[in-house]
Amino acid sequence: MLKGYAGRILRVDLTNEKIVRQSLPAKMAQNFIGGRGFVAKTLFDELPPDVDPLGPDNIFIAASGPLSGQFLPASGKTHFGCKSPATGGYGDSNLGGHFGPALKYAGYDMMVLNGRAALPSVLVIEDETVSIRPARNLWGMGSLSSETRLKEEMGEDFQILTIGPAGENRVAFACITHDFGRQAGRVGIGAVMGSKNIKAIAVKGTGSIPVNDPKALLEEGKRAYRNVRAKPGFTGWTPEGTAGITDWVARVGALPTRNFQTSYWDQHAKINGAAILRELKITDKGCYCCPTPCGKYGRAKTGLGHVYVEGPEFETISLLGSNCLIDDISEVAYANYVCDELGLDTISAGVVCSWAIECFEKGLLSREAIGKDVQFGDLESVVHLLECIARREGVGELLADGVKTAAQKLGHGSEAFAIHVKGLEWSGYECRNAPGMMLAYMTSDVGAHHARAWVLGHDLAGSSASVHDLIVSEGTGEHLPKSKVTGRAAKVIESQHLRPLFDLLGICRLQFMELGFEVENYERLYEVVTGKRMTLEQMLSVSERVWQLTRSVSAREIPGFGRSWDYPPERLMNDPVPDGPNRGHCISRREVDILLDEYYALRGWDANGIPKAETLISMGLADVAETISQWACHETT
Amino acid sequence: MRLIAKSERCSGCGACRLVCGLTNYGEVNPAMAALSIHGRFPAPGVYEISLCDQCGACAEACPVDAIEAQNGVYLVNADVCISCGECIEACPHGVMFDHARLDAPIKCTLCQACAEICPRDALVLEEA
């Protein structure tokens, strides 16, 4: 029996209502560890050729890792995977909360859904009992309302995932919601769930996870909690959570503002972490076993209504706040709530709304097309657009496929300020003077997402300090010199291996990233749980293997995939930042190519950004190497 | 000593439940915990902790005297217990549980592990 794992994969063929339980292959656990690694391996092995991301043949995966559900800090991450409707390539997204641990206690490390249910359905997993039930009157209901209803019907012990109208209507940035405010937001994972006619997944598990040394886990777990508690960030970072970084991001000129027209906004203090504590917060809301809850649950009171909402977290503050020029934290929280209930990713939604408003300002979208006048800084404008998108009504039909597709359809130069990479909207850090972070966004396997690698501190503060240390660092927002573009790739790659480590193990990275909980601790925790020794270096080599694999999946799935898919939008290359600490700076197309050339060389990719066969073989991916020449566009220049 | 819940400090992480099962049964399984957390969401947005205050109602209800106080802590003698469930029914706080794999009901042993680990100090020990 594999220790540390539940030991089984649950496979549900929704079309034929066939349920299969399969042993978790030991080789898969060894070579891919768990979580994102399982997602990547499964997508590579099992995606049928030329599959429509929103067709029944796409695969929907949920996977935890060996440290998920274990007695150690923040062991609650679940990773979801699919062929992404946002990018057409490799897609994964994760959430905290309690779902993955519950799935594991029910006896499953991973769940794979194939096919499409004949009718809107709820998948219910209660230990050995797995059933597909009619969703009945839940279809059309909001994400939060659906979870409320299901908890009332099934009991509070169930951990529940839901989608909202956006997922039902297959919006390319529809999310999955869980525990009244945690989301797997990215890559359109909610749309894939909706395309399978699955409104909700409810799980309750009462089993034990076999571990190698329970006594050692008890001691090491306690030691880990004591360690985290002794970090300065435990009391310094936790109260505001991710929102606590808002002022620092503004101070270093990296705050997306007005659809990324600039990177500084002097109103940032109105929507920062302190504003949340002052105006919204009822309680801290933690994910599974998390000692430092970044979730701030509160009540937002605006002219449009009073709502309970978890958040906003920093990304939401950035994209629905500064990027839409909403300068009232209650209004940002209200827009957050609307996204949550409709089932929209707040990051992509903020980018799409700000793009639409800029199009209106420029006369590219008319009042008739949008249905009303819209403007930056106006909550009603944002809410109107969100409602249209989720229901694909009016201008929503244009916007619901994401900013890349919308700009391609609209044309008239609007592609230049459609802020995305590979079709995934850019998350909360403006990078025109942050070449490492720019490169991280460009080369992120799922598209423009910050969580794959985060080197902003290195770029703009010359520091690899924890986020808490950055937040409390000195600085006045003075003008920053232009950052050097050469020599950035190694740091980005280091981060692209380090961050996924947590995604493989099935835990939250914030204990390490935000508080400085030493990453070496996970060697010991992995050993007491699994009974196997794996050094940090060996774990990082698995991260690298997964990185090569996800790139290969996109190279296979996206026709013509290669270097051109790694470029940032023209605005970030051509338009110098107009004001703030990075005024005058941008990263030119030539400099972007320098970044990519260095990166590809270090990665062992060719000039088109395709992994070379020898690179794949050296990573233990001989099966990928054997076939990659059949579908990838290699360039040797 | 007695265990006190400060629910207003709880963030619902559930580490207390996991350490409870691990300490008392040597298993990674929150369903083997002798306390529970109730998230009241979406409204009013608070957590409520239910725990054993060693009131002894379980012992009074037990038809075979399988639950006895030792130094103020009521403990279940699994060798005597007949798994009738009377104690679970009688518990005023709803914090005695059965589990399919266990012969006797789960009950707080006042091992103090939850209070030791709670990162929020939502579970604290006080002199009785």
What do you see in this structure?
The complex is a heterodimer of chains A (637) and B (128). With 637 residues, chain A is of the alpha+beta class. Helices cover 41% and strands 13% of the residues of chain A. Chain A folds into 2 domains: 8-204, Aldehyde Ferredoxin Oxidoreductase,  A, domain 1, CATH 3.60.9; 232-516, Aldehyde Ferredoxin Oxidoreductase Protein, subunit A, domain 2. In chain A, the strands form 4 sheets. In chain A, strands 2-1-6-3-4-5 form a 6-stranded mixed beta sheet. Chain A has a 6-stranded mixed beta sheet with strand order 8-7-12-9-10-11. The N and C termini of chain A lie far apart (49 Å). Helix content of chain B is 20%, strand content 20%. Chain B has helices at 15-25, 57-61, 86-90, 113-117, and strands at residues 2-5, 36-40, 46-50, 67-70, 73-76, 123-126. Chain B has a single domain (2-120), classed as Alpha-Beta Plaits (2-Layer Sandwich), CATH 3.30.70.20. With 128 residues, chain B is an alpha+beta fold. Chain B has 4 helices and 6 strands, in the order E-H-E-E-H-E-E-H-H-E. Chain B is globular, with a radius of gyration of 14 Å. The interface between A and B is large, with 43 and 34 residues.
Question: Structural class of the secondary structure composition of chain B?
Answer: alpha+beta
Average pLDDT rating of chain B: 97
Helical amount among residues of chain B, as a percent range? 10-25%
N-to-C series of helices and strands of chain B: EHEEHEEHHE
Largest interface: A-B, 43 and 34 residues
Q: Ends of chain A: how far apart?
A: 49 Å
Instruction: Say how many strands of chain B there are.
Output: 6
Our count of helices of chain A gives: 28
Q: Any idea how many domains of chain A?
A: 2
| Global Rg of chain A | 23 Å
Question: What descriptors fit this protein?
Answer:
heterodimer; A: 637 residues; alpha+beta; Aldehyde Ferredoxin Oxidoreductase,  A, domain 1; Aldehyde Ferredoxin Oxidoreductase Protein, subunit A, domain 2; 6-stranded mixed beta sheet; 41% helix; globular; B: 128 residues; Alpha-Beta Plaits; two-stranded antiparallel sheet; 4 helices; 6 strands
